[in-house]
Amino acid sequence: MKCLTAIKLVAITSLGISTGGLAFSSYSLFKLSTDIKTQSSQALSNALNLTIKLAAFASIPLAWFAATAFSVAFTYAPLRARHPYLVYAAVGSLLSTGALAHLVRPALNAISKDPPRLKRSKKLASPKRKEEVSSLDDSIYVDLKESVSPEATTGVEADSDDDDASLEFKIKDSIYKDDTIKTVKVLKRGFAYSSSVGLVTILLATIGLAGDRS
């Protein structure tokens, strides 16, 4: 019985950590959605990657481990100790992340593309001034002549290329942020649902365990 109690405690603890991670991810997504327009594409990509990887590599595996532990506790318990709450807790653990697991993979694919970056031309305008000094009959004449060099022409072309690159960047950045907003909305619903189911399951399992020990 002590071994079964330990398994149940491990299951509840694992589910608690999983649910805490899901709740933190849900809060992070809510905070991200409030200022998504003011953040750079790179910052959005980093924040989403961190949130999704936390769920994919921590919360989801822990919830599945908890479901397995609840199932083991129910299977190997004596007939009189096979309480239904163990089955409910196992199912609740799977439900808390089952739908989320289907959301995480498409979200990973959606943000796997690198965010747009602004590429500027390395060619800069460098107009040269030619100063010619000539002397004639004890008089000094200083003529400043601007000569249009090939570098200056290249500089004008570079400015035009920069303008085109800036416009292209703004378009790609706007499209990337629109796709990110859609991804965040879907994940927000998923994380909110998962953390709520996980919390209810923890309460159910904790009450059931307290009833076993009373």
Automatic annotation (TrEMBL):
Membrane topology note: Multi-pass membrane protein
GO cellular-component term (any): mitochondrial outer membrane
InterPro entries: ATG33
Species name: Kuraishia capsulata CBS 1993
Record's keyword terms, sorted: Membrane, Transmembrane, Transmembrane helix
Location in or out of the cell: Membrane
Family: Belongs to the ATG33 family.
Predominant location: membrane
Annotated protein name in UniProt: Autophagy-related protein 33
Transmembrane segments: 6-30, 50-79, 85-104, 191-211
Gene Ontology biological process terms from the UniProt entry: autophagy of mitochondrion; macroautophagy
